[in-house]
Amino acid sequence: MTRLNASLAIAAFSYLLPSLAQAHVSVASGVGFANTTQEVVFSVGHGCEGADTNAVSIEIPAGVTSVRPETSDFGQVDVETDEAGSVVLVSWQKSEAAALPSDTQYYKLAVRLKIPDAPFSTLFFPAHQTCRAADGTISVVDWVGLEATESGSVEPAPAVYVVPARFPGWNQFSVAQDISDLSVFFKDAQIVWKDSAAYSINPTTVTLIKGTSGVTLLSSLTTGDSIWVKY
Q1: In the structure, what pLDDT confidence band is assigned to residue 99 with cuts at 50, 70 and 90?
Q2: pLDDT-based confidence at 108, cuts 50/70/90?
Q3: DSSP 3-state of 193
Q4: Confidence band for 13, pLDDT divided at 50, 70 and 90
């Protein structure tokens, strides 16, 4: 790793971007840490064409364990398990008395779970959103798309980007798969180094990288790369 000069070290600071408010069902709690038990929060931005959200079901992907859903404003929460006893579906259901006449509320639904030990991977949680209009009409939106190429025909599934567990300061990681978009996994990193190339999401740090002799901009990573990351 190329030694960081003083000006670059001072300018590189944590630059955590808040999750953008997204329509319908998405993950609001940020990245997941590999092999760590944590709370994942699902955001329900709005209902279905003016109708209030009445129920939400979240599919639990393989490898995710220790699933414990939390109660919410929806009240009732249920789980479905497979033959081995693993939770494969979590569902929240409003009571009929709690139904709202229109889409006026923002909801958060939380599940405590253990992220698998698979850093630099993506966990998809296909979701199913049920809405109930004032006249009793029921509509369902399935958020199940797993690839960007599907976005035109299938609504995208909520996703958790898995990063390695780390300490404040410098960490060394080995990349287990190709990464073409570094912003996905390094939004909260001060700086990422590979040999004499560096990456940061912070525009000021990027300017300093460009102006540092012998250092180039890092734009992607390939399987097996060894990197240094400062948080």
Answers
A1: confident
A2: very high
A3: strand
A4: very low
Give residues with Cβ within 8 angstroms of 230, minimum separation 6: 12, 169, 170, 171, 189, 190, 191
Read off the pTM. 0.84
Distance, in Å, from the CA atom of 139 to the CA atom of 129, rounded to the nearest integer, reads 8
The amino acid present at 135, given as its one-letter code, is D
Measured in degrees and rounded to the nearest 5, phi and psi for residue 49 equal 50, 50
- Looking at residues 177-198, what average pLDDT do you find? 97
Q: How high is the pLDDT of residue 98?
A: 87
The pair phi, psi for residue 150, each rounded to 5°, is -90, -10
Which pLDDT belongs to residue 153? Answer: 67
Residue identified by tokens 């390094």 is: 186
Q: With 70 as the cut, is the pLDDT of residue 19 above it?
A: no
Residue 126 CA to residue 108 CA, distance in Å, equals 16
Domain boundaries defined on the chain: 6-15+187-230, 25-163
Contact criterion met (CB below 8 Å) for 67 and 123:
no
Beta strands (DSSP E) in 115-225 are: 121-124, 127-132, 138-145, 155-156, 159-163, 170-174, 191-194, 197-199, 216-217
Please give the Cα distance from 127 to 47 (Å, whole number): 13
Query: Residue written as tokens 């939380």?
Result: 110
Fold held by 25-163: Immunoglobulin-like (2.60.40)
